[in-house]
């Protein structure tokens, strides 16, 4: 008897799943047809969304690898100030990231609720400071990019401002790969040495 009941439940589940898929496809097809009719025969693209998904997955894999290296180039607001580039391991982290929530609700007997600021990890109250992004070089040097336009990429690039140019070594990609391998092997000093060698 139990086997019959189980089989019946499985059958209902399969039918339900197929019905849901059919309804979803039917609704999608109907919307596309309505769009074609509404916009004088212009057909909406039948996209799968894989590009967005693949980009998301690739970004998370990069962020999750502490041995990866990204190059962050800073563009100071003054044209007279030089453009400079910093190697950052892993990723840049937002100052708003925390182990603890910044606010907690407090409920009163009259039914009202207010949000109160929580103490931070250091036991202090920080209010609402302007956000910034920070990171660490392969050698462990702390860097932050407060109020500075920043461009970050996994490949070192050339930039030019007026007559000022930032030149790079043609072997930058190979050196970056070697530095990432040193980081993965637990040797940040060697990784930083390779990075520093690019500027010599």
Draw up the topology in text.
Blueprint: H1 2-38, H2 50-63, E1 69-74, E2 84-94, E3 103-107, E4 113-117, E5 133-136, E6 142-144, E7 150-153, E8 159-161, E9 164-166, H3 172-184, H4 188-197
Antiparallel strand pairs: 1-2, 1-7, 2-5, 3-4, 5-6, 8-9
Helix pairs in contact: 3-4
Structural class: alpha+beta
The domain tally reads 3
Q: Globular, elongated, flat, extended or rod-shaped: what is the shape?
A: extended
Strand order of the largest sheet: 6-5-2-1-7
Mean pLDDT, nearest integer?
77
Show unreliable segments. Answer: 2-23, 163-167
Report Rg: 27 Å
Most strands sheet: 5 strands, antiparallel
Query: How many helical elements?
Result: 4
Report on this model:
The protein has 200 residues and is of the alpha+beta class. The protein has helices at residues 2-38, 50-63, 172-184, 188-197; strands at residues 69-74, 84-94, 103-107, 113-117, 133-136, 142-144, 150-153, 159-161, 164-166. A hairpin with a 5-residue loop joins strand 5 (133-136) and strand 6. Helix 3 (172-184) packs antiparallel against helix 4. The chain is extended. The N and C termini lie far apart (80 Å).
């Amino acid at each position: 008897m139990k086997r019959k009941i189980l089989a019946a439940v499985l059958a209902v589940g399969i039918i339900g799943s197929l019905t849901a898929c059919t309804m979803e496809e039917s609704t999608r097809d109907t919307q596309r047809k309505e769009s074609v009719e509404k916009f004088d025969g212009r057909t909406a693209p039948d996209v799968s969304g894989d590009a967005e998904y693949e980009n998301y997955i690739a970004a998370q894999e990069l962020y999750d690898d502490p041995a990866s290296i990204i190059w962050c180039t800073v563009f100071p607001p003054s044209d007279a100030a030089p453009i400079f580039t910093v190697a950052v391991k892993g990723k840049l982290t937002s100052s708003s990231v925390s182990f603890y929530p910044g606010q907690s609700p407090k409920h009163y007997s009259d039914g009202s609720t207010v949000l109160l600021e929580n103490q931070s990890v250091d036991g202090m109250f920080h209010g609402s400071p302007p956000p910034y992004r920070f990171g660490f070089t392969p050698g462990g040097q702390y860097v932050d990019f407060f109020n500075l336009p920043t461009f970050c990429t996994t490949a070192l690039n050339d930039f030019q401002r007026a007559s000022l140019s930032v030149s790079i070594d043609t072997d930058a990609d190979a050196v970056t790969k070697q530095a990432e391998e040193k980081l993965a092997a637990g040797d940040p000093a060697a990784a930083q040495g390779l990075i520093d060698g690019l500027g010599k």
